[in-house]
Design brief:
The protein is built from 26 helices and 18 strands. By secondary structure, the protein is an alpha+beta fold. Strands 1, 2, 3, 7, 8, 9 and 10 form a seven-stranded mixed sheet that branches. A hairpin with a 2-residue loop joins strand 2 and strand 3. Helix 1 (about 20-40) packs across helix 4 and helix 13 (about 415-420) packs antiparallel against helix 14 (about 425-435). About 40% of the residues are buried.
């Protein structure tokens, strides 16, 4: 039987969905339906998701309309056990036939390598796709990431918003489905204002075009997003500037409208005296407006709003938005003026009222610890410890300002502005903003010495503190963003080329928690956590896992040094001698481990060297120990490994011509000592025996 295929449309019409969650809901709905169809073994061509504030929809092309027929096969008893001596069916055979609902004569015989068996075969007709869809749709809705499902009135079921209509079309036919108290139909609804009347959907493939042409609804999320982006940029250009397009705001606005229309408005230029970030936060956070910058980067007294309607009188809409934004900007101006009356330094006492973490004390306590650690880090970097300490003490003071209280995303940024107005050193002011960098993957790193010191100290204090009280990240739970903080520490040290010993910094951070930490071996735990984060970092940079493992084996505690060793190992493995030397090192390691001779301090007695090959290796080891000293001092690990590559033939000759496990104990131990010293030369960089072919 040839298989038939039809297009499928599923649309769930609701009250306005949460705009920030719309895209996530749409993607999850698609994944759920896709998984359901695959589990039912129903093939399809392409599945396309659509989403607006009032609907979640999917159009699936060339969906199989019926499951394939299956041949169900059950194996019964072996022929030898199926009949007695007289050829009559045994009880086992009779029972098997009854369980299959057939007579013994209806069973078939199957020959195998292990003998003959009686089997039951039955053709099972595949289910109609239409009969499977209600359960597939229901399961997908049940799995949507909705933190809190709600019930409305006497409507059955719970969902994120009330459901008003349901469209399920398979080809030209409506599939009967009842979900959340609504029966499926072929009628959708257009734009709430432009076309509130029902729209009859002809076929699944006409769904999106019909809604756009008849209903004034751009149902394609990505197309709507691009339309908004284009309109905003075009309007900004007409105003002589560039739009400030925050990706999160763009997503949110896309989730707020079905028929986007961009309009530009103005505000009083006097507000431009405020920090640009404050104005942008006010426009974005409260009104969902896009700000506009001049070509030189200065903010312009304009904003762009996205309406959900094509108004016949846009001037009225613009005037209304201009009236609304005035009190918002006035509030920001009030916060700015109020905050400037009190210097940041005088706000430190207020930090005693803010709890950082119950067991780790207040934000004031944390500031004191961070200040001590930042001063030490700055000193290790060769910069001014006093500036780093001052910056750390002021770092959290803007948390108690009116502006940051209203716009938490401005913490650090407002601290920088207020510190500049207070006459603080330029590096100190900049550090108040840089302490939070990197804020996200790929973000800029702190650049000033004080900013680097405070950022590292802040992150290390948090990581060590939480590990020290037994609250490391677990699974997906990471409320203090320790993963991001750890990666930030590594990026700052490595990408700023800082020769800082991370183990020392972790120990110093732990020592600042006087009688607070309860966990044993905190430094070891935290360093292991950093090594785990470093592994992900280097793999993302294109390094190979075995290169990382080879360096980890010698546990360098300076991240920059770790990276330099990895680079050297990557270059070393390109050499023709690499494979042989890696194998030789693995053999040496195995021999030493078996004989418990992998300790430092074993010396080679030249008087016990008898074979030419072991004498040659001993001479090369002595020569290498001297030759490599300046290379190690310069951290020229590539040079070290390149030099050691020249020992391949000597090492190979040793294993070919020398019996390490001599019957003479003194000779045996002497040869083990020689191998130990040979291996130590390589371990000065990495354990190259970890390298795979």
């Amino acid at each position: 039987m040839s298989q038939a295929y039809q297009d499928l449309l599923i649309e769930l019409g609701t009250e306005e969905l949460p705009p920030k969650a719309l895209l996530k809901l749409s993607q999850a709905f698609q994944q759920g339906i896709e998984q359901g169809l695959k589990s039912a073994e129903l093939s399809f061509d392409v599945i396309r998701a659509y989403a607006t504030p009032r609907r979640l929809a999917l159009v699936i092309s060339k969906l199989q309309t019926q499951q394939d027929d299956l041949t169900v096969e059950r194996r019964g008893p072996a022929v030898t056990a199926a009949f007695d001596e007289d050829g009559n069916p045994t009880k086992a055979l009779q029972g098997f036939a009854r369980s299959c609902g057939v007579d013994v004569d209806d069973l078939e015989t199957m020959q195998t390598d292990k003998g003959a068996w009686l089997i039951f075969k039955q053709q099972q007709k595949g289910a109609e796709t239409a009969s499977l869809l209600p359960e597939i749709i229901q399961q997908s809705l049940n799995a949507l990431p909705i933190p809190k499902r709600m019930r409305w009135g006497d409507l059955p079921g719970e969902f994120v918003r009330p459901v008003h209509w349901l469209v399920v079309l398979l080809g030209d036919d409506v599939v009967p489905v009842n979900l959340l108290g609504v029966n499926s139909d072929r009628f959708t609804v257009g734009h709430r204002f432009h076309h509130p009347q029902p729209i009859r959907i002809s076929t699944p493939m006409t769904y999106a075009p019909q809604l756009e042409s008849e209903g004034h609804v751009m149902v394609d999320y990505e197309a709507r997003k691009q339309a908004i982006h284009g309109q905003v940029n075009e309007l900004a250009a007409s105003l002589g500037g560039d739009a400030v397009i925050n990706p999160d705001l763009l997503d949110e606005v896309t989730g707020l409208v079905e028929w986007p229309v961009a309009l530009a408005g103005n505000f009083d230029p006097r507000f431009l005296e405020l920090p640009a970030e404050a104005l942008i936060s006010s426009m974005e956070g409260h009104q969902k407006y896009f700000a506009v910058r001049a070509k030189n980067g200065d903010l312009l007294p304009h904003f762009i709003t996205i309406c959900n309607i094509a108004s016949q009188d846009p001037a009225q809409v613009i005037a209304g938005n201009e009236r609304v934004i005035l009190p918002r900007l006035s509030d920001a101006a009030f916060f700015w003026e109020t905050d400037r009356k009190l210097p940041l330094a005088q706000r430190q006492e207020q930090l005693k009222t803010i709890v950082f973490q119950n067991k780790l004390g207040t934000v004031y306590d944390k500031s004191q610890r961070v200040a001590a650690l930042a001063a030490s880090i700055a000193q290790q970097m060769g910069s001014e410890a006093q500036l780093a300490e001052r910056a750390a003490l002021l770092a959290k003071c803007d948390l108690v300002t009116e502006m940051v209280g209203e716009f938490p995303e401005l913490q650090g940024i407002m601290g920088r502005y207020y510190a500049q107005l207070d006459g603080e050193h330029a590096d100190v002011a900049e550090a108040l903003d840089e302490q939070y960098r990197p804020r996200f993957a790929g973000d800029d790193l702190p650049q000033t010495a004080s900013g680097i010191a405070v950022s590292l100290a802040e992150k290390l204090d948090t990581i060590v503190g939480l590990f020290g009280i037994g609250q490391p990240p677990s699974g997906v739970k990471d409320p203090f963003a320790l993963r991001r903080a750890a990666l930030g520490v590594l990026r700052i040290i490595i990408e700023n080329q800082l020769s800082l010993d991370l183990s020392r910094l972790v120990t110093e951070a732990a020592n600042n928690f006087v009688d607070i930490l309860t966990e044993d071996e905190v430094t070891t735990q935290v360093m292991q956590y950093f090594y785990d984060r470093l592994r992900g970092y280097v793999i993302d940079q294109g390094a190979k896992a075995d290169e990382y493992e080879s360096v980890l084996a010698v546990s360098p505690t300076q991240p920059l040094d770790f990276m330099q060793r990895m680079k050297a190992v990557a270059e070393f493995r390109k050499l023709e001698q690499a494979e042989s030397l890696a194998a030789g090192n693995k053999r040496i390691g195995n021999i030493l481990r078996k004989n418990e001779a992998e300790q430092e301090g074993l010396s080679v007695d030249t008087n016990l060297l008898a074979e030419p090959a072991e004498k040659a290796l001993a001479d090369q080891v002595v020569a290498a120990q001297q030759a490599l000293k300046p290379l190690y001092s310069a951290s020229d690990y590539a040079g070290v490994l390149n030099y050691l590559a020249g020992m391949r033939e000597t090492i190979d000759a040793f294993f070919e011509q020398v019996m390490v496990m001599s019957d003479d104990e003194a000779v045996r131990n002497n040869r083990l000592a020689l191998l130990n010293q040979t291996r130590a030369l390589f371990l000065g960089v990495a354990d190259i025996s970890c390298l795979q072919e």
